[in-house]
Hints:
By secondary structure, the chain is an alpha/beta fold. It has 14 helices and 28 strands.
Amino acid sequence: MERRRRKSVVKKQEGKPAEPPTTLLSDHDLYLFNEGSHFRLYEKLGAHPLTTATGPGTYFAVWAPDAERVSVIGDFNGWNRASHLLRPKGQSGIWEGFIAGIGPGVLYKYHVVSRHGGFHAEKSDPFALYNEVSPKTASIVWDLSHEWQDHEWMAERRRRNALDAPISIYEVHLGSWRRVPEEGYRSLSYREMAPRLAEYVERMGFTHVELLPVMEHPFFGSWGYQLTGYFAPTSRYGTPQDFMFLIDTLHRHGIGVILDWVPSHFATDGHGLGLFDGDHLYEHAHPSQGLHREWNSFIFNYGRHEVKSFLISSALFWLDKYHADGLRVDAVASMLYLDYAHEGGDWIPNEFGGKENLDAIALLRRLNEEVYQSHSDVQTIAEESTAWPMVSRPTYVGGLGFGMKWDMGWMHDTLEYMKLDPIFRKYHHDKLTFRMLYASNENFVLPLSHDEVVHGKGSLLGKMAGDDWQRRANLRLLLGSMTAQPGKKLLFMGGEFGQTAEWAHDGSLEWHLLEYPAHRGIQRWVADLNRCYRSEPALHELDCRPEGFEWIDCSDAAASVLSFIRRAETSEGDVLVVCNFTPVARPHYRVGAPRGGLWREILNSDAAEYGGGGVGNLGGVEAGALPLHGQPYSLDLALPPLAILFFKHEGS
């Protein structure tokens, strides 16, 4: 990657910090920062190219309250630790300075000498906007100027992100979606990715893309979940403007962008946030509070005011500067519980003796309040894997304030069920029906995410029971069932065409499988599911309200058949859904119906174009005046094996 570098002659300060000719930090900024309520810190801290009365240069500011001395080192001064010292800004713990003659493209770090004897380190800028490509670790002076072209999207995204809108999310790891075999299987750049991803997602009918963390991370194999840069997109794929171009392109194709954001832990790499000034600045000092045993990473000290300002500023940064349409907040459960991943009682209770992390709870509530106050047309989504109450309810009623929550219970129960040989499924029917007891407690997203296809778990297709034909039929049934149920949808890349291998971050998806009709059939099924979900109000308008769903029959465990109704705001356009979870075709299977007249078969996962056997109902069925299942009418259906049917009421 080419990088602009500006060479300059900079007068050395001979070890004496010069009074900066300008400052971006007012007394009010310092007050808010130390109070924990400054949520646009990226405008004040970090490296800022500007022009003063004496000429152009770059203003630097970094928080290091336990430092005895801080200097800026870089390619502009031969990495000299003594030539460009910063000055302390009062008692705020911030060090600042202005270096004339340098601007975008210059490499730099902070050299920090601690007041705790013997400690000194070269640190990347916590507020860097751009960094060297790993394994190099320098920050780069940069600006974020970009002429956005997504005005139409931004004007209407409130409607596209609303809880009554169709939201079908395609989860993507940028480094392994597609690779370039002619060039050593390298990853695509942001700009190479932009038209390809936008065209594909639009063609497949997904409404949003969710990107695994793009924030800077030193270890590619962490998939972005071990961060060092909370304000910089990874430079592996290009510049910040290149990433803006990717988002801009997706928006211009009518596709929302959700960013995976990780406030739950951060990388322990020496150039990062850990022990930043010789003391535990961002992280807790006690290992029972400050170290994630499961991930070998540091835990933020959520009770420290300046850390709260840092994290919420990071969240708002991606919404303010990169036009992100939402944040999926990773590992919320690990933040909420002090005993998370701590075995044998090795954890410290809160002040009331409980295991709830009161500081983290306060941070999450404030985070969501600030996000929705500034950007009421976006969504925050919690990956929260426990039964913590009211995750997606407003803070003023005691909730955490998220817009949505992943339904991990649905995912675990459903995948366990789909692994079963169909002969045993009748004994586990409750795994399919249980979620409807709580489905309206939260605003749920139904996730089939990257976590389900790694670490020896196999691919989504590989989890399905039966021979090759049955596995593909089961996968189509699973994806259809997810679309039919209340809740927004999320599918990890590769699942949409039946990838056979477990996901590998250092390779590419198995695009060659689309040479085979069976995999093209799965892909076509997902595209048609998305179009049906988007076009039928009954399948999305009341996703988050109980009146949008009604069982017809949830008790036919012997046949492993489920039937239910999805409804819209009006009673017109009801969609009736029937699922057969056995490989047995069931002719003349009768289910109740709320209305007489024609029920048109709008989707059938057993259709030949999807790779099925072609069993169906000749386009539709007339409801007879034979009451059943508490309904005044009923339908005499032909149920295909391992299949899901969607019917729409067309009237009398």
